[in-house]
Structure formats: C-alpha cells, structure tokens
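Reply to dn_fold:

You asked what the input looked like. This is it:
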Amino acid sequence: MKRLAIVLMAIGLSACGGDGLEDLKSFVENTGKDAQGKIDPLPEIKAYEPFTYSAFDLPDPFKPRKLSIGGGGGVQPDLTRPREPLEAFSLETLAMVGVVSKGGVTHAVIRTPDKAIYHVKKGNYLGQNFGLITQITDSEVTLREIVQDSAGDWSERISTLVLQE
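and this is what came back:
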C-alpha cells in the first residue's frame, strides 16, 4: 500500500513538470518579427534674421504712467486734494453692506477687502477713479468717476455700488 501511494505521487508530480508558458514564449518571439521603426527626418533649420528694435521713443507699456492734467478742457480731477481712505481700493473690491441714517443724513456702510467697515455720505470719495458720491439710496450708491483716456483727456462716467445681501 505504501508503494502504491509512492508510485501515485511520483506520477502526479511528473504531470506537473511542464511550466505551461509555451504559448507566452511563442507570442513574445513572434511579436517583434515584422515591426520596423520609422524615424521622421529632422526639420529644416531656418536662417537667423536679425530684428532691429526701433520703438525706443515710445512709452514703456509696463511702467505705470503718472496722472497728469490733460491738454483738453472740460472735467479734470483735483489732484492736490487730500485722498480719503476708501480711494485706496478699486470699486470692484468694495461692498455696500447697509444704509444708516444719522441726524437726517443718509450714510452707506461700505466693507473693504480687509473686512474694515466705513460709513460714507454724499460728497465723500470712493474708489481709485476719483469717484465722488452723488447719491445714496436704500439699495445703491451712485458715483461720478473721472477717468483719463490714453490721449490724456479726462472724461466723466457714472458708476454704482449695489447693496450686497
């Protein structure tokens, strides 16, 4: 009985002798036989053509220009007037968050980007374009801004700051 068990084990082990990878080995051998690589030719090198820069007399577009009084008549800001604290912020970064009445005068409550709160009234300045507050209602602040165009002339525009809810 012992001999029979040993013989059966030997037969069983001999059946497991193959590695079973013949199909994988044949695939690897046959895969690269017909492949041929193709290398594109190098691009043609163009000759260097020197460029002469002739715009030295034009203003540098990357330097901020100073505001100056334009040559034309009409509206011009008072550049000598002392600036108010809210003129340091652009109008897009300021938010109207409320309205308060003090002694019969309506004040708008303005929040700056650094979360500071200011009360402004008609006649105060707001924003970086010399924005004079002309009207305050329950829902918005109306400003008269003075902006300079590329020719140096000043023009007037009306802007509003709407109540944020």
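The first strand starts at residue 95 and ends at 102.
Hope that clears it up.
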